[in-house]
Amino acid sequence: EMLSRAISVLILEEKSDGMGKKHDTVMLETANGFTFETLSDVVENGEHLEHFHSYERTDVKSGSSTTAIDQPGTTIEMHLDQGLFLIFTPGRHYNSVDDSLSMARDFFIQLPGQDNPVLVEFQEDDDLVVLIGDGVNQYVNSKIAGSGSSFRGFQLRAVPHALSIQQNQQQARVWYGRMGLPPATA
C-alpha cells in the first residue's frame, strides 16, 4: 500500500494552474469510461496472481525426478516479468533427506549499465522482495512522461533477473510470489 501511494504521488503529482484549480489526472481508464485515478486504485482493482514454484532437475540418463545436474547453468535466463510488480520471498532449497530448508543463493539481477549479472544475497528468513515488472513501461512511465510532475523525465526501471540452480543432490528449490497486474478491462 505504501509503495503504490508513493508511486502515485510521484506520477500523478497535481499541478496548480496558478488560480488554485488543480488539473485532473487519470492512471488508467476502461473502454466504457471507468477511471482508476491512482496506482493504489489500479492495484486494488487489478488481478493478483499467486505463484508457488518447485524446481527440480531431471536426471537425463534415467528420466527420474531427482535434482542431479550434470553441469550447472542458467535455469531461467535473464528476463522481465509482465505486470506492474512482483512481490516474493527468497527461494529456499528443500532437502528431502533431512527435511530441512536453506536459503537459495541462485537469484541474479541485471543492474543498469552493467553486462554481468549480480548475485542477490538475501540475509534474513523474513526478507520480502519487490521487483518492478515490465508493466511499468506501458502504464506508469508513460504517465510520468506526459505529466506536469516535477519528476518528469524520471523513469522507473523494470528489473531483469535470472535463476541459476547449481548442482544440489536431493534438493528442490521452492519459491512463493504474487504478481500485480492492472485491471483486465483497462
Blueprint of the fold:
Layout (H helix, E strand, L loop, with lengths): L1 H10 L16 E2 L5 E2 L2 H7 L1 E9 L20 E4 L5 E4 L3 E4 L4 E4 L3 E3 L8 E2 L9 E4 L2 H12 L14 E3 L7 E11 L5
Antiparallel strand pairs: 1-2, 3-12, 4-11, 5-10, 5-12, 6-7, 6-12, 8-9, 8-11
Explain what this protein looks like in three dimensions:
The protein is an alpha+beta fold and 186 residues long. 16% of the residues lie in helices and 28% in strands. The chain is built from three helices and twelve strands. Strands 3, 5, 6, 7, 10 and 12 form a six-stranded antiparallel beta sheet that branches. A four-stranded antiparallel beta sheet has the order 4-11-8-9, with no helix packed on it. It is elongated.
**DSSP helix fraction:** 10-25%
Overall shape: it is: elongated
Query: How are helices and strands ordered from N to C?
Result: HEEHEEEEEEEEHEE
Catalogue the unreliable spans: 12-23, 64-72
- Strand residues, percent: 25-35%
User: N-to-C terminal Cα separation, in Å?
Assistant: 20 Å
Radius of gyration, in angstroms, nearest whole number = 21 Å
Number of strands: 12
**Overall average residue pLDDT:** 77
